[in-house]
């Protein structure tokens, strides 16, 4: 039975657009995969912290040679990496913050990019070890950054995610961006805004 890792990073709770999109994705995924397992990771409830010198030293020390202190420093990273390794498929809810991903999402990436575990250097070249995984990124942005928009070069979310996950071996990716979410702050109807996004998600499962 397949496993889906469902990761959210928006702190906006019920107001979040990206959380509404991932919830719709999970509902459809469960209908398409009866008996499948969904593992949920909420970055607003995960005690992520910036990488430390101790963390780097631990990550580059072979597992059987790590001290108790090094093992403790890597414990959360080990859990997060295991969630990625044991899932077949991923869905990520990602708000745009200041043209990039939220800090919590960046800290999570810093935590799961682990030499010898999620990537390796083979003959001097990097090789992603998260192979055979399928990832869907559901992004919410206040403004519009679509093709042809004057602000297209301001969008560092999708290019960054493509590069970071591609480096780790996740190349079967799908990106959907709910652009213009700022209109919701100025009276736009939430259900009407979300419906075409939900429709696009349902269409992924109809293929
Ligand atoms: C701290 C912060 C920074 C933001 N930065 C941007 C930005 O750079 N560009 C943009 O288009 N929208 C920006 N927004 C708007 C969010 O992308 C938008 O509200 C989106 O819906 C957030 O995702 P969520 O609804 O899942 O929380 C920002 C919002 C916040 C709270």
Structure description:
With 207 residues, this protein is an alpha/beta fold. Helix content is 39%, strand content 20%. It is built from six helices and seven strands, in the order E-H-E-H-H-E-H-E-E-E-H-E-H. The protein has helices at 17-32, 53-59, 68-86, 103-112, 157-167, 190-206, and strands spanning 3-8, 37-42, 89-95, 119-122, 125-128, 134-140, 172-178. Strands 2-1-3-6-7 form a five-stranded parallel beta sheet, sandwiched between helices. Strands 4-5 form a two-stranded antiparallel ribbon. Helix 1 (17-32) runs parallel beside helix 6 and helix 2 crosses helix 3 (68-86). The longest helix has 19 residues, at 68-86. The two termini are 20 Å apart. The relative contact order is 0.17. The mean pLDDT is 97. Bound molecules: flavin mononucleotide. Residues 10, 12, 16-19, 95-99, 140-143, 181 line the site of flavin mononucleotide (FMN).
Largest sheet: 5 strands, parallel
Report the average pLDDT across residues: 97
- Going by helix content, strand content and strand pairing, the class is alpha/beta
> Helix share of residues?
25-40%
Shape: globular
- Counting DSSP E segments of at least 2 residues, the number of strands comes to 7
- Beta fraction of the residues? 15-25%
Task: Give the structure's gist in a few sentences.
The chain is 39% helix and 20% strand.
Secondary structure layout:
Layout: E1 3-8, H1 17-32, E2 37-42, H2 53-59, H3 68-86, E3 89-95, H4 103-112, E4 119-122, E5 125-128, E6 134-140, H5 157-167, E7 172-178, H6 190-206
Parallel strand pairs: 1-2, 1-3, 3-6, 6-7
Antiparallel strand pairs: 4-5
The chain binds flavin mononucleotide.
């Amino acid at each position: 039975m397949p496993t889906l890792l469902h990761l959210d990073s928006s702190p906006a709770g019920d107001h979040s657009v990206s959380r509404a999109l991932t919830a719709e994705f999970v509902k459809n995924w469960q209908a398409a995969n009866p008996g499948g397992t969904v593992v949920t990771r909420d970055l607003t409830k995960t005690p992520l912290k910036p990488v430390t010198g101790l963390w780097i030293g631990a990550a580059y020390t072979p597992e059987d040679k790590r001290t108790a202190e090094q093992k403790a420093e890597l414990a959360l990273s080990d859990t997060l990496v295991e969630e990625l390794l044991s899932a077949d498929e991923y869905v990520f809810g990602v708000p745009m913050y200041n043209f990039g991903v939220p800090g919590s999402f960046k800290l999570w990436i810093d935590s799961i990019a682990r030499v010898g575990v999620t990537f390796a250097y083979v003959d001097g070249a990097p090789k992603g070890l998260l192979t055979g995984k399928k990832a869907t990124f559901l992004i919410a942005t206040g403004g519009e950054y679509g093709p042809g928009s004057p602000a297209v070069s301001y969008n560092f979310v999708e290019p960054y995610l493509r590069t970071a996950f591609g480096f780790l071996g996740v190349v079967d990716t799908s990106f959907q961006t709910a652009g213009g979410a700022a209109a919701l702050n100025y009276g736009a109807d939430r259900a009407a805004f979300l419906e075409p996004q939900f429709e696009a998600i349902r269409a992924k499962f109809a293929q």
